[in-house]
Amino acid sequence: MSRIEIVPGHENLVERACSFLESEGSDFSESIVVFPGKRPAHFLRRAIALRTGRSAIPPRVLAMDGFVEFIYRSLLKREDTELHPLDAIAILYDLHVRMQKKLGGESFRTLDAFLSLGSKLFGAAEELCITLVAPRDAAGALTASPMKNGEAIADFYAAFYPLLREQRFTTRALCYADVAENIRAASFDEVRRVVLAGFYALSRAEQRIFRHLAGLDQSVLLFQDGPGLNKHLQGIGIPYEPSPPGSRRQQISLFTAADTHGEVLTLNTRVKELQDAGQTLKENAVIVVPSADALFPLVHWTLAMLPRDSYNISLSYPGTRTPVFGFLHSLLELLASMEEGKVYAPDYIKFVLHPYTKSIRCGARTDVTRILFHQIEQKLAGERSLTFFFLEELENSAEVFSRVAEATRATEEALSPDRLREHLIRIHDRTIRNLLSLKSIGDAARKIMDVLLFVSEETTADRHDLFRPFILPVLEECSAITTSRIASRTLSGLPQYSSFFRNALQSVAVPFPGTPLHGLQVLGFLETRNLQFKRVFLLDANDDVLPGTAGVDVLLPQGIRAALGLPLQRDREDIAAYYFDLLLQGAEEVDIFFRSSGKKEKSRFIEKLLWRQQLESGDLKRTSPIRRADFSLKISNHRPEMLRKTDEVLHFLQDCTYSATALDSYLTCQLKFAFAHVMRLQEQEGVDEEIDRPSIGRFVHSVLARFDRQNVGCILDPVADRGEELEEVIDAEFERAYGKDPGGARFLLREQIRGQLKRFLASYRARVLASGPVRLLGVEAKMTVMKNGYTFKGIADRIEQRGDRIFILDFKTGHDASRLMVNTSSLVPGDPATWPEAIGSCQLPLYMLLYSEQEKVAVEKIFPAYIMLGKKTMDEDAECGLFDGGTASAASWAMIEQAIFEIVREINDPARPFEPAVDLKQTCPKCPYAGLCG
Ligand code: SF4
After folding, report:
1. Ligand 1: which residue has its CA nearest to atom 1?
2. For the chain, how many structural domains are there in total?
3. Which position among 288, 415, 538, 696 has the lowest Cβ density within 10 Å, counted as fewest Cβ atoms?
4. Helices (H), 391-493
């Protein structure tokens, strides 16, 4: 008779399994040990070595999947081919095409449209199959449900597996189902001992296999006692007898932090405390990482404190979070957004600025590609009409290559424009062009592998420790696709190929196999199954991670799952609760970390733990204290250094022509003025789909100038209907600025601007023209004047004569003019401290000065005003005069004019260095030179 034992949760299951092994001397090869996962195998081998005290031939140690495969292939002698999941989808698609009543009607007509549904269908079919649900029962439950597509799902299930059998394929679930069905035919005579250890929730196929094995003399079934085991033993007809409770008390400490980084920093402190106390964390200590979020902070902070060979990471990390996936994703996005052979500039820039693309070597040099792509970025940012462009347009851009050639001239090996052009063409050929014409899915997979090998061979990416572990699983998946049945299928276009590979690579996992049994262990939550650690650090113990939130299963909702005996969400929660309990039962000291910000709740398992502590102590207020780890991050920037004026700078300032922008910049921050107007450092514009505020302003100004330029000198016609003319100007200017067919956000923006300018024409402008004759004196009128030894310049958006009054108008795209005004009551021209507060902008005051000097017009005749185009209703109040009553009083103007000259005098004062802004907190965050200032 077999031996069945319920091992107490605090006992070491691996050692218990070891004690049942039979051997010929030190030869254990006639025994088989099966655990739910792979990891206990390492610990079992070590336990055998300790038991025998010498080297031994180990037993066959298998995870459940491997054991089922062993029975299938070795004992039942089956030779069917294992089906790749993508091939399964292809077979399901063929079934879908042939079906009369199609799932989703005509929505999934093509293979690419069907892919995501196919993947879900395959998952659902595998669950039904491993649960040994007969097609008839599935049909009964699915058709009786109110689900619209229940019948179609049942049809798929009924047809799919017979077809696989016919074609001599198998899948994981089918393998389990066949083994369960034929287990009596499998002979275990050659096996002296079969130990099945540490199982908890079993599928129906597993239950059937267990029931049979429980009847074999050589079987040992070991279960570890924990919450819910009773129910699962009932499923296989084994009576439950609770094991004696352990006497060990765990020392449990709880920590909470605002985010993952806070958790990891707290863990750091704990590890440091132990190190300071002379303790070394060895293989009996584990850091459990239940979600991938914490892995990299952990690697960079906590593990970085430890010697490199003193820890072992064994878990699998989602491939989608790696830079390799990021690189492929940007390339696939670029391909998907192409139109008529042209690439979309923002996607092109994202791809070429990916660290892998930027680091493609040019000969032996690693800097050239970076310089080249930044130059291209500048070109595309400057020429916004190149929203979509042919790669050849860049390859023929002589100006880009000569600029980059110029930049390389100062280096050891100057490169010619021709050499650089050749380099760019090669990069395009090996990456983007390589994928432009795809014959089939297999062809695309081969070409993606070519691109990745190119990156591996020709960039500096492989200098990164993790590059190889990151790239290998992607290459393996692509290689599997090239040999799969789906390889010969074709998709309808580049966007479909892109979406196919983005989906196909989603499931790639990067294994961190580590060196088992050596040093501190870093494991995923399920990797801790059946193992015991004296010291446990458990990260991310939040309810959305442990046990995790329920996903929505659209094909097999909870009601149907319950009817068919499939696992429910609460079963998944029970499994997590069971392993959480075992992890704690086996430990002596446990530190649990969780987040407590936003909607994050601590895991229900911690709540239970606290509740249990209260019950045991008989005091509902008594539990383990939760220590809050609040890290106050003190970001203290040093005050930027002032800049002294050299003789060269003073000469420059003396000869400088001062614009309103320069004076405003000086009032905001003198350093900013120096960077922008003395050193002429310019902010790099990005190649974004979004159009920033300054670009919108430039565009609106160009439309309004073009609209009225031919009317300069004329009296404007108050009754002329010029709506159509305005539309044409908007379209022409938009095309000039952003290209012929703007898509997405640009299209929407154009329409918004069109609406607002039509309101401007119909409301504000119509009212102004109706109120009396208006002569247009200028649009974008340039003015330059020298006075008191300083030269000033300005461009007035619009100058109008209304009666004998001169209106100098400046368009603004905002709606609030208050921040642009001048407050003469708080202005003391000789006191620089009053300038920034009192002078909102020097713009209109300077234009008044320029116009009155240039045209010899008295300032009291000049009416300066801003036209706020961002106002909701474009009526008269869109025009905001600088002065109450329209003109400046003589006293006010005298103060303003004096202030303008005081400002330029101070700028030219050798004794006054350029100072940083007075209020750094307020000014610096919006400043483009913040990086320079530090
Ligand atoms: S970062 Fe601040 S101090 Fe530096 S230039 Fe800009 S505004 Fe001035």
Report:
1. 930
2. 4
3. 696
4. 391-395, 398-409, 417-430, 441-458, 467-482
